[in-house]
Amino acid sequence: MDSGKGWTPRLNGDGKPIYQAIADAIAADRDNGVLSPGTRLPPVRTLAERLGLDFTTVSRAYGEARRRGLVVGRVGQGTFVCAAPPAAETAPATAIDMSMNAPPIPADSKMLERMRREMAECAADIPPRIMFGYGTTAGAGEDRAAGITWLNRRLEGLDQERVLVCPGAQGALLALFSSLARPGDTVLCEALTYPGAKSLAAHLGLKLAGVAMDDQGLRPDAFRAACETLGARVLYCNPTLHNPTTVTWSEARRVEIAAIARHFGVVIVEDDAYGMLAPQSPPPLAALAPDLTYHVAGLAKCLAPGLRVAYLAVPDRRLALRATAALRATSMAACPVTTRLATRWIASGLADALLHAIRAEARIRQGIARDILPADSFRTADGAFHLWLPLPAGWRPTEFADALRAARLIAAGTDAFAATDDAPQGARLCLGTLNGADETRRTLELLAELLDQAPALTRSVI
């Protein structure tokens, strides 16, 4: 590999900040052949001494070069020049949005082609009665059967009368919140919770009360205290690959929470959005406390958000009728076209193949994160395609959010998830929306550069 340890940038003194001028020089020397792809640039401290600059200016210059895709940093090895992209791929820098937690698109072209083919075949097979009908509120028999097949991976012993097909997890939650609570009621949840649940509670006039968490999930002592003092009758929770922290409750913790809920007569709404992605997760609450738990299993995170399909398992047939009435009132029914497509994918095995492909892609992106980011700077778990980044030491929440925006990184901060005033501070970074491994690496290098700076270096107020 070429060595550029003697390289010195030519700074033309055009009035630009020096860190930008150094990045410009890297670009110019790469384009004119002075720096060939793979060349290792001088260490930051060496170049700083050579130019008579301080360390932070050169560090910021290398960070700017990484942001532009000019160089790549490798832990323990140095900073290397990247090849120039073809002209058609060159585009102005835009913000990188990691705020929406969508699954990564599999890199397997054969998988994507199979998806297209089965979509086309499904469309060709749909009879007019499906296109010109509203569908059955609880779902057609074959679609509910497909839901049972899918849920059996985590939840056995279901029958069609206890499983409803819903228009996505949000549609299922709307029906449940509106039928299990009344305006003014309190619904308990984790201290950091799904933003969609916060929106539903506000829309329905419910009081969402966050319960303290630890590294195993919802704290039993805090849950018991909340049940005693708030008189709530509903707990909404996300026990597997928690959004946003990626925490998965242990089986012992689930058993303890279920016992407290039963003691106080609290029903549980278990949002299992990520459960299928976690290969070794404990049994869901619906398996441990089936008489108390409404289990929502959406397909958006584990297969494809575009399906807008979720399966709802309810405690018994009587409650299924009540949930069906709520679904009818709030959404009429799930879309029969996308529901039919989900049924086809489950029957053909494509759903399983796609689930495994998403898990594999998530592991690749997690590996990149572990290569680039400091080991103690984030939390994730097997199967997750998002990271939880606790607020770095020395940063204020608004200051860190401003620094992310300045680096053109869009993430969801604590405010999006907080259900209490003292919720843990941090940011959720969604890797699934990034365009493959290369963009994931470039994006996380920008983040690593930011984490390497002291907060004072990002302030521009004078």
Automatic annotation (TrEMBL):
Chain ranges of the HTH gntR-type domain: 16-84
Classification via CDD domains: AAT_like (cd00609), WHTH_GntR (cd07377)
Domain of life: Bacteria
GO MF terms held by the record: DNA binding; DNA-binding transcription factor activity; pyridoxal phosphate binding; transaminase activity
Keywords of the record: Aminotransferase, DNA-binding, Pyridoxal phosphate, Transcription, Transcription regulation, Transferase
Entry-linked PROSITE patterns: HTH_GNTR (PS50949)
Matches recorded under PANTHER family: HTH-TYPE TRANSCRIPTIONAL REGULATORY PROTEIN GABR
Family of the protein in this entry: In the C-terminal section; belongs to the class-I pyridoxal-phosphate-dependent aminotransferase family.
Official protein name in the record: PLP-dependent aminotransferase family protein
Native organism: Magnetospirillum aberrantis SpK
